[in-house]
Amino acid sequence: MPQQQEPHWGTQQPSSCSAPPRPPASVPPAKQSAKYPCYNCGKTGHFSKNCFARRRSQAPLLIRDNPRQSKKKGPKRDLAPTEGRVHYTHVDQIPEGEPVLASIFLVNEHPTVVLFDSGATHTFISRSYATKHGYHIDNMKAKYHITAPGSPIDTNQIVRHLRLCIGTEDFYVDPVVLPNQGIDIILGMDWMKEHNVLLDITSRIVQIKSSKSGKPADQENTGGFDFPDVFPEELPGLPPDRNVEFAIELVPGTAPVSKRPYRMAPDELKELKTQLQEQLDKGFIRPSSSPWGCPALFVEKKDQGGKRLCVDYRPLNAVTVKNKYPLPHIDILFDQLGGATVFSKIDLRSGTIKLRSEKKTYRRLAFSTRYGLYEYLVMSFGLTNAPAFFMYLMNSVFMNELDKFVVVFIDDILVYSKNEKEHEEHLRIVLSRLREHKLYAKFSKCAFWLKEVAFLGHILSAKGVVVDPKEGGRCAELEAATNCDRDTEFSWFSGLLPPFHQRFLKNSKAYDSINPKNAKFAWSPKCEEAFGTLKKLPTSALFRLNRHHQAV
């Protein structure tokens, strides 16, 4: 019987269904990798744990804890540079309780739905959103393979250097372009790691820490931003039918008033044609054959430049019976703020056209242009009774909230609360009211979760009220009087102050020294000193509000 030879490990051939056998432990590691094949790809020169093909075939490591997956942690592996993953491309896909937050922020000055998603590996942007705003899309040499709901996505496009404004801080992102999705921008783990972002899902707070100092750079509460439809970039069309319609009552015996169109420069005529077509498309105006007609003109927009089409309704206002609906006094509004520490302000978009007009009023709202006669179907800018009608609408919308946690002055809304927990609930109530009544706000002019807010020319805080330095600074330009016109000029000056400031001035010796009763005008050094003191008052005097909602 032949002697059975002991098998030599190196000469044994693996079967087609078995993995290569493990080398003896006594063989040095360098010689092992050079001599024996890899478990994963079958090639020599490396171990299975370092196999490039294996790394490429693995899914990227997720930060999210998914209850449907095993909680056992696997080995930590590096993410291949061309691989990526996004869990949600539409808000409707997000299950309740997932560690994601959606909010609205300004991106290149455009209100944008932004999703903070710890399950996304990169920052992404919707192609439809990028195209809508004219962002330049670059092609990359490398191609991204994105694991997404439904089927994988291959893309090699990117939008570079977008400015994202969160609170008071600006961040720049280079999002990868995905096909059209329901979320404008998704901030993934690449951005969150770079800025040391902490998501507090329970409190709905995004905390961004400085990567250098480790100190909080900004904190943004998203509790009031679940209402993206309240902040559209453009008005959707005619306002809905409401319980109030704009109407014009004429002085008895008034005949129709018609004026020739104003002359415009060539660039204004081009803009006029564009805006007329836009308003025709939205249903705000229609061609008219009315005997009335006031001339159209352009007014420069203060906030973002450009021109706003308006109508010089002064001839119509002169024969209109004035509506006596009261507008609130500023001092009465501020009297309600005692004890408030958190503020948000909301500025409605194109407030005057939120009301439809009565049918018999259409012809009276006609306006003349180089391109014909048109008439408004909604309440327009420049009408004498427009503020009263709109104030009536806003009071009816917020009647249950007024003087509790809401202050309204025409199209400016202030939400105030004693603490952040109350403020989140108050914001939700206010935004729900706006959504219910189809009233839309301009996000770029709104501000939320502030300790100090600029409102109606004043700075409001828990400390009290002071005139906004932007307004009060104009007082420093006043010069000493040389005649009795000083009283008129000083009346303008004191008009910059809140009424409770004015009450103080009326009782001050400094004011009396400038405005002596029944005395001949004489500007003395004493008057000059008193006037200098009063010029500093608007930006230096702080009037406190007590917790009983009274000015002190």
From TrEMBL:
| Compositionally biased intervals (Basic and acidic residues) | 76-85
One example GO MF annotation: nucleic acid binding
- In Swiss-Prot or TrEMBL terms, this protein is called CCHC-type domain-containing protein
Spans annotated as Disordered: 1-33, 58-85
Question: From what superkingdom does this record's organism come?
Answer: Eukaryota
What are the Polar residues biased-composition ranges? 1-13
Q: Specify whether Metal-binding is a keyword of the entry.
A: yes
Q: What keywords are assigned to this protein?
A: Metal-binding, Zinc, Zinc-finger
Q: Which organism is it from?
A: Paspalum notatum var. saurae
Record domain CCHC-type: where? 38-51
A Pfam family reported for this protein in Swiss-Prot or TrEMBL: zf-CCHC
User: Does Zinc-finger show up as a keyword for this record?
Assistant: yes
Q: Which GO terms describe its biological process?
A: proteolysis
Q: Which InterPro entries match?
A: Aspartic_peptidase_AS (IPR001969), DNA/RNA_pol_sf (IPR043502), Peptidase_aspartic_dom_sf (IPR021109), Rev_trsase/Diguanyl_cyclase (IPR043128), RNA-dir_DNA_polymerase (IPR053134), RT_dom (IPR000477), Znf_CCHC (IPR001878), Znf_CCHC_sf (IPR036875)
